[in-house]
């Protein structure tokens, strides 16, 4: 007897499974509030060089003071990173004149003045992460995703070794502690360190929540449960826009998005360990207890099974040790691992490339965040139909390719066509989220139970490399303004094409052991 047959006897999608999925929605909602937090945490308001006080400036208005102290861009706006070494009083008479001697222009020496009309404070205004220090601003997001990358390796292996629930609890506790420490950071170095550790902890939540829920669900409802779980990510996306709109100080914003981890910890009390994992690892007594509880809650009170019958279901020798190398030892698993890794990299690289460019599409950044969140829900519902009708492989490949083409289209569309650019961007975000929804579901079906979390850990590791590189690509705009978008487009199209090399998993039972895959 396979575990799938056992699920049919106890109810593969009853009250028990629905309660698990609902309880796991809270950590899922919390994830995007951290993963996309950089947009608001490190937002850069308009700024200019601070002008030292002089007696001669007493009777000048702010506009006049800026006029004689700060050079202008060709479009008439004041420069953010340069000032005149001496006041240019003649500009008061004719402001259209441009100084011919560039030697009188120098970099800011006395700090910067920021526009606080939108943000009370961000890490940018806190530590002057502008101009020559602009790279440190984008690096803050990279540090976070480096942590997520490391966490994918750590928690992917440990949750296959020690269980899903215990490691999920550890992830939530560490996320709560390091999130609060981030809010109390006294320096940029402390913030970078604590955000990196927060990323490590949150990676465990990202990895474990979906498989823990899906391992209790039968084949017929696996897609539905995956889509429903991912919808809570989109809800978190929209909530982030609302929370960031209401909380404009970066420290309190960190507290606001971290505090819900406590609620997730409380909810985890009622979530059982994966019976599929318990049986695969020889812990049949615990599995027996959870299965009887599942049958009782689902109204299958006549269900009985002995621990001996469960012991015979153990797919591999109890205590057999697996590692990440096991993903590459056999030919079919090796091909799956290489191709799925490429797909994950492309999905994350393009998704975070779009998600962290809220001001590039002509909308208010809070509205962009909310619209990007709300467009994900119909994208997921459409994906539910596609993966069941068209199949996982085709859906995965084409959504990622179309996402890249939408990014590429906005390179060609002139910036004056604000409405058209916004529509294309929203379409691209929809395709991108559809690709992300598919890749979580698809990958969890490709790997066997004994290596599922290791497989998810490996692919998540590759994805987080994409997430870590995505914010740094924005710095390429100094080479050519459209180079970042061209990079996101090319990577998405190439990686999407790799999905055509993966096997189809539609209506296929979840593999239990390595021999099922081979």
Topology order in helix (H) and strand (E) letters: HHHHEHEEEHHHHHHHHHHHHHHHHH
Structural class: mainly alpha
Would you give the CATH topology of the largest domain? Growth Hormone, Chain: A
For the record, give the distance between the C-alpha atoms at the N and C termini, rounded to a whole number: 20 Å
Domain count: 3
Number of helices: 22
* CATH architecture descriptor text of the largest domain: Up-down Bundle
CATH class descriptor name of the largest domain? Mainly Alpha
What's the total number of strands? 4
Helical content, roughly? 55-70%
Query: What is the arithmetic mean of pLDDT?
Result: 85
Q: Going by CATH, what is the homologous superfamily of the largest domain? A: MFS general substrate transporter like domains
Query: How would a textbook summarize the main sheet?
Result: 2 strands, antiparallel
Strand residue content: under 5%
Write structural notes for this entry:
GO terms for molecular function: organic anion transmembrane transporter activity; prostaglandin transmembrane transporter activity. Its main location: membrane. Belongs to the major facilitator (TC 2.A.1) superfamily. Organic cation transporter (TC 2.A.1.19) family. Keywords: Cell membrane, Ion transport, Membrane, Transmembrane, Transmembrane helix, Transport. The chain crosses the membrane at residues 139-159, 166-186, 192-212, 224-246, 252-271, 336-354, 366-386. By secondary structure, the chain is an all-alpha fold. The chain has 3 domains: 1-35 and 131-318, Growth Hormone, Chain: A; 47-114, no CATH class; 322-517, Growth Hormone, Chain: A (Up-down Bundle). It is 64% helix and 2% strand. The chain is built from 22 helices and 4 strands. It has helices spanning 3-10, 15-23, 25-35, 38-41, 62-69, 123-127, 134-162, 164-183, 188-214, 222-246, 250-258, 260-267, 275-280, 284-297, 307-312, 331-355, 365-389, 392-412, 418-446, 452-473, 483-498, 514-517, and strands at 47-49, 82-84, 105-107, 112-114. The strands form 2 sheets. It has a two-stranded antiparallel ribbon with strand order 1-4. It has a two-stranded antiparallel sheet with strand order 2-3. Helix 7 (134-162) runs parallel beside helix 9, helix 16 runs antiparallel to helix 21 (483-498) and helix 17 (365-389) crosses helix 19. The longest helix has 29 residues, at 134-162. The radius of gyration is 26 Å and the shape is elongated. The mean pLDDT is 85.
